[in-house]
Amino acid sequence: MNNTEIFTGKADNYAKFRPHYAQTAIDYLFLHGLLDKTSVVADIGSGTGIFASQILSSVSHVFCIEPNSDMRRKAKTLLCKFDNYSIVDATAENTLLPNNSIDSIIVAQAFHWLDPIAFKNECIRISKTSGPVILLWNRKIPCAMEDERRNIVAKYDEVEDYYNYSWEEREKGITNFFCGSVQYAEFDHPLIENFDSFIGRTLSSSHSISENSPQFSEYMADWTLYFNKFAKDGLIQTDNKTVIYWSNLNIK
Hints:
Layout: H1 11-17, H2 23-31, E1 40-44, H3 50-55, E2 61-65, H4 69-78, E3 85-88, E4 104-108, H5 116-126, E5 133-140, H6 144-156, H7 167-177, E6 183-188, E7 191-193, H8 195-203, H9 216-230, E8 236-238, E9 240-247
Parallel strand pairs: 1-2, 1-4, 2-3, 4-5
Antiparallel strand pairs: 5-9, 6-9, 7-8
Helix pairs in contact: 1-4, 1-8, 6-9
């Protein structure tokens, strides 16, 4: 499957149920000078605008680079209260942005879908100076509950990202991308959800299957059993953290 189409049909659930990033992580970006009020930002694989919505009031302009039409449609709704953004129908590897036009390049929850070599070349082309390039994820913390979740994902999933969902492989890829010089920070960000929001977030995932699939009833039954097993008083808490990897563009 073309990576740009993986989330087609999932944008509504994505916009409604995907979590924001820890506010402490957003604060970190500003406290460490990775963003400021003058920053012109490229938000790569911007999706429905979740990350952009958390910084637009504090930067100069955000170019939301998103190749999926469903995601761009929802982003227009989410970001309509701002006037300092542009939504661009383009890919990470060919952003259509001018040379030397961007202060900070950010990839939130999407680096694993990108061609790292082509993306690195594009970062070098569009950056005004020396960076930074910032990679963020909401990452579930390894535990027995997460192991069981991954088992259900593996039972149905037919989509592979660039690193096959392995965090060990992803971190190797990140280190390679930054040529070994990378800084890291993490911030606790537990997810507390009722059944509807848990299912909505699950259905927004790349691994979720279509409601038209003959396996969909079984799929929903497995996630319902999972929720009931781990929920307390109608709520399930997933241990999660927002993680940041970043470096300046001395990555040539």
